[in-house]
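User: Sequence in, structure out. Go.
Assistant: Echoing your sequence, followed by the structure tokens.
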Amino acid sequence: MIGVVSLLSSCGLLPDDSASEGLSGYDPAIIETSLAYQGLERDVLLYVPFPLPENGVPLVIMLHSEGSTPEGVMWKTTEGRWNEIAFREKLVVAYPRGYGGYWNDCLISPGGHYSEQDDVGFILELISWLSEQYPIDTDRVFAAGHSNGGMMALRLAQEAPRSFAGVFANNALLPVESECTVPTDKIPLMLLVGTADPIMPYSGGQPGLEGSASSPVMSATATVDTWLRYLGLPDEVRVTELPDRVDDDHSTVSRMIYADGETSLWFYRVNDGGHAWPGKEPFSRLEQQTNGYKNQDIQAADEAWKFFQQSIGK
């Protein structure tokens, strides 16, 4: 069941009155709520735009990084961009909170993850509830995540592929030893990794800052190869060098697309990029010291939405 719902703020975006005829009457709003699941109240932040078409809208589940919050991933990590896309495209965005600030990803060693909760079940229950409250098109549900949230997104792709039309994992790699099952269904997947990421090592190894207790992850190449095998995709690739729009972000982006007509894997390699969700706002000097450089040539939410649209044939 869902707990008390509180309206945090209107977004100040006024719809065109001429476009609202025959559409549901939601105000553009950020809504704070909670879902009771397995004896715990799990917080969720929602962005619900006005107006919503009555015949079904997409849903994006955005998962924060380790130790972060729904507010942090909404405003700091993604720079509010998912909300802007949601208002323009008319979709609902849900920002759930991991238990204790962490998601139960696929790492199996002690200290490799910080939650023992059934987060797959929690997110599927959240989707079910939202579909009862809003005109959600269950064939257009997507998941995205950053860092620990990206690894959780990969877990959703492995263990609940039929529930999602596409998944985007940012700064996330597969663990060398995994407690997750091999996916039994194909799912469109997008990955983004920085080659100079000091927290999620591109060449594989122990994730996290120096001294962390996490078990090792695969390299980016091994992660891509593993998913190509999971998805039954050929290793033929189409490579595009994206425009270097910002000179002083110290990085560029290469996009690699693997596809077979049924599904696809898009891999964004951020050359010399660090542990970041690409966007327009640069890292501070302190953030650069711990995370490396943030790419500003793309906005990851825009690229993810482009991928999600492609995954459903639009």
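User: And one key feature?
Assistant: Confidence is low (pLDDT under 50) at residues 1-26.
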